[in-house]
Amino acid sequence: MTGTINSAHESKADLPAYPAARAAGCPFDPPPTLYDLQKQGPLAKVRLMDGSTPWIVTRYAEQRAVLADPRVSSDVTRPGFPMEAQVMGRSGSGESAAGPAPSDTERGPAGLSFILMDDPEHARLRRMVTAPFAIKRIEAIRPAVQVIVDDLIDTMLAGPKPTDLVEAFALPLPSLVICRLLGVPYADHDFFQENSRTIIRRSATREERGAALKRLLDYLDNLVGEKLDNPADDLLSGLTERIRTGELTPQGAAQMGVLLLIAGHETTANMIALGTLALLEHPDQLAILRDSDDPKVISGAVEELLRYLHITHNGRRRVALEDIEVAGQTIRAGEGIIVANDIGNRDPEAFPGDPDQLDLHRDARHHVAFGFGVHQCLGQPLARMELQVVYRTLYKRVPTLRLATDLEKIPFKHDGSVYGVYELPITW
Ligand code: HEM
């Protein structure tokens, strides 16, 4: 590694603040501070809003090594865990790539959020929902997702313009897909969508969010009860088997449903809206998608957009359980670690050529936009399939799609734990 860690900084107050701001006019690039830190070496120290000073891992190879290391923990309740600003002050909880994390009491015995747990409990719970996300099962619902995408585009085109792509298309799609996967009856879609939206709405108060979460949990709890009596071919019905064997409570099954909803909703929605904006800003790249029907080109484009945009921009958060050597430096037991995968996805060692260019023909499959190691995104086959359907359909069906405002006026989610745009006014 090059030089001493943060050698230019003498005191804690001088350490770079994290998260750092993006450069003006560069909404798709990680903050300049992260480029600087990556140039200096794979490991540095940063200062969080609560004054703590965890390690930050900035280079791709070291990031994968840390995320695959069983001596690091995802348990937010451990002392030293580097908390995200949005949830500082909330006891025993954190916020992750996959959305807001529940409090200890919300977690319950069956564990709402295995994303914030370590093995073996994490693995035990994750295994219960692995099968529905297997590639074969996800491919089986591709035609149904195509119908949802086409219907949403039909409705959008029949409505007034300009319109907001986030409201009209990007948010409803993942919500409708997760409804299908879980087995939420069609008649309840509106209720389900309305409450999911409240949970992720910027203007919602904590009380409103809590009430919406409770309504969804109660609803899913009820639905699990119905599936126990009348199982169908869906994820919640699959979980009823675990209830029968005593591995899971009905409440645990409902909590798992909410976790999947939260983890898969805003992430996919942001990739749709921010991806569309990035493509509109790179018309030569947009043309590749509009002009191709080759599934390989489409799936390659999805991987490159995931790499380039890296929406889970606040880093994978961990705490060391033992002393760990990383790039010749010892991270002590109990010290916090932030794995900044957004800058890892721009590491020239891992992505030769110009990693700051959006290049849909690049082989970007080894990106870390879904994380790495045991917590690597469970829903990635679903996210990939949804994005492939969207990216191969939207720009062909709406070839004149364009921004209805200036780039400078677009409200970016700098403050969100998942990056994207709050609104995307478009016309055609
Ligand atoms: C483009 C969309 C998505 C992105 C960028 C994304 C990103 C991520 C990342 C980075 C992690 C790792 C968290 C960590 O290591 O701490 C993760 C975990 C997870 N994601 Fe996703 N995700 C997406 C879509 C989805 C979808 C559609 C679902 C399911 C419906 C989902 C379910 C999960 C779950 C359950 C975990 C926790 C896995 C575990 O802890 O074992 N995600 N996601």
Report on this structure.
This protein is an alpha+beta fold. The chain has a single domain, classed as Cytochrome P450 (Cytochrome p450). The chain has helices at 32-40, 60-67, 104-107, 121-127, 135-140, 142-158, 165-170, 172-182, 189-200, 206-229, 235-244, 250-281, 283-291, 295-309, 341-344, 380-397; strands spanning 43-45, 55-57, 72-73, 95-96, 99-100, 163-164, 316-320, 324-326, 329-331, 336-339, 402-403, 425-427. The strands form four sheets. The chain has a five-stranded mixed β-sheet, sandwiched between helices. A three-stranded antiparallel β-sheet has the order 6-12-11. The longest helix has 32 residues, at 250-281. Protoporphyrin IX containing FE is lined by residues 74, 96-98, 114-115, 126, 178, 259-260, 263-264, 267-268, 271, 311-312, 316, 369-371, 375, 377-379, 382-383.
